[in-house]
Amino acid sequence: MKRKIILGRYMEGDSWVHRLDPRAKMAAMPLFMVAVFMVDGYMGALALLLFTLAVIRGTGIPYRYFIRAMKPLMFLMLFILVFHLLYDAGGSKLLDAGAFKVYAGGLEKGIVSASRMALFIMLAAVLTFTTQPEQLAQGLGSLLKPLTCIGLPTDRLVLMLGIALRFIPTIFEEAERLWKALQSRGLDLSSRPLREKARLIIALLVPVTTGAFRRAIGLADSMEARGYRLGAPRSRFRAFVWKRADTLFVGAFLLPVAAAALL
Amino acid sequence: MVISFEEVSYRYRDRGMTPILGLDGLNLELEEGRMIAVLGAPGSGKSTMLQHMNGLMRADEGLVRILDFNLESGDSRKIPPKLRQRVGLVFQYPEQQLFEDTVEKDLLFGPLNFGWSEAEAAEAVRRAAFFVGLDEALLAQSPFKLSSGQMRKAAVAAVLAADPDILALDEPTASLDPASREDLMQRLHGLTKAEGKTVIVVTHRLEELVSYADDFVVIKGGRVIFQGTARELVHKQEVLEEAGLMAPSSVRIAGTLAAQLGIETPEMLPDAAALAAWYAGLLESQS
Ligand SMILES: Nc1ncnc2c1ncn2[C@@H]1O[C@H](COP(=O)(O)OP(=O)(O)OP(=O)(O)O)[C@@H](O)[C@H]1O
Ligand SMILES: [Mg+2]
Predict the structure, then answer these.
(1) Ligand 1 pocket residues where CB is under 6 Å
(2) Arithmetic mean of pLDDT, A232-249
(3) Could you tell me the residue range of the domain that residue A30 belongs to?
(4) What is the CA(B209)–ligand 1 centre distance, in A?
(5) What's the average model confidence in pLDDT over A207-230?
(6) Which residue has the least CA distance to atom 30 on ligand 1?
(7) Interface contact B54-A62, CB threshold 8 A
(8) Which keywords label this protein (chain B) (predicted)?
(9) Tens digits of per-residue pLDDT, B201-217?
(10) What pairing do the DSSP bridges indicate for beta strands B3-12 and B61-66?
(11) Are β-strands B3-12 and B198-202 bridged in parallel, bridged antiparallel, or unpaired?
(12) How far is CA A151 from CA A143, A156, A230, in A?
């Protein structure tokens, strides 16, 4: 309960990355993904890592936050590495310990696959750390806008996404507050039998979810009361302005793709 | 001294990068068996201070002494359950405190955690419910079906049931009707007088505590900027303003009357009765 999930949070700041148009940051994601998947060797992975570190530096957010963002997936990355070490027999033999053999090719594939994941998490963290949830949802809405003509209910999707992004941290906070209140009344889980622990945790979920539902219903009512209608034309408080920095940013992400394609 | 804070600082670190100051070298000493009002503008650190009182939050710097427990900063030893039992905390949002499927089970939660027998606990719950004026018929209901006023009473009862020596309540009157508000304050005051308990009440309404609290503490920016009696506080305009408070209407009326009559504003207890007595005295002396 103490160490919270950090990926997906917004970190206040005023760096040039914060100020970019959210659409530019989102457009950069698929480009980056392409580059990440085209990389298949140490050099490429290293080059992308340097590129990502440069962007991270630009956010002004300390590196340790990005490392913390990767923590929950560290295990998976390790698993990918070990998997390749065990089952990938390419290149020269590096180590031979009876049943356990490590090949240079396996090592390289393992490291590259694990770093693909790390790179992607880092860039996703750049996006969420520097973009407010509402802006994220709004930016996605305007990127998806063209799809309305093939009948995709983009407003509805964006509204849902926006509310979900807005509520997830609140739900965590609420669970934490409830937890504190119970501790204050002498709750001590460690001294309880397993069955009792499970019962308490389920009992905890009830107020948190009912609270969230009640809040969501209240929110819907209050939005309607203030004149919100889905699909109705609506002016934006903060219209996006596409600046030259945005073009440059997206352009910069074409570089690794081009480099990976040529090399 | 039942509670003492020495240079206590606390920073919230979980939202964004820059830590938010909760308490900033706070000093406070509270005497046993008194009723204490804690006032301050929103965000001044009242709730943060309260949560230091039973070790839910541990100070980054400084020393917190509660009863015979010393909570030093940097000490991460487990909080003894006895402290949690002796210091009861009623949180600001009651809906974030209740969780069981009936109100009765919720009220039983504390006493059973502290190892009471079922019979003792049931008796304590019945007494606590009666004390806050919670209808016994509600005990079998789900806490989430209660109105916010009833929920508030249930939340107070749930903490009182464990019979704490110190009771700290965070804006307990926020969703109560005026009659229940007055009633609750009177009963809490009774606890300090009859049973020698220490009661700490956070509020934004100076007037509801004027005739009950012995001591007033005003907080701003995580520090104590005033500690004293109601009589002293109501005439300190700058302190009131900094705490986002208004002088009680009786004081304002007395001030206006005095100005119109061209006499000096009287020093008096800030309540309607004192105002009436002063005014009656004025009328008498004129006739
Ligand atoms: N969970 C939290 N995370 C980050 N900052 C917090 C958190 N809780 C409180 N704060 C900050 O700490 C400071 C003190 O907050 P606190 O809740 O103690 O104020 P308060 O006096 O109880 O206000 P109110 O009258 O609104 O209840 C505020 O600046 C607030 O923004
Ligand atoms: Mg508060």
Answers:
(1) B 12, 14-15, 20, 22, 40, 42-48, 92
(2) 80
(3) 2-131+242-262
(4) 23
(5) 78
(6) B43
(7) no
(8) ATP-binding, Cell membrane, Membrane, Nucleotide-binding, Translocase, Transport
(9) 999 888 889 889 999 99
(10) antiparallel
(11) unpaired
(12) 15, 12, 15
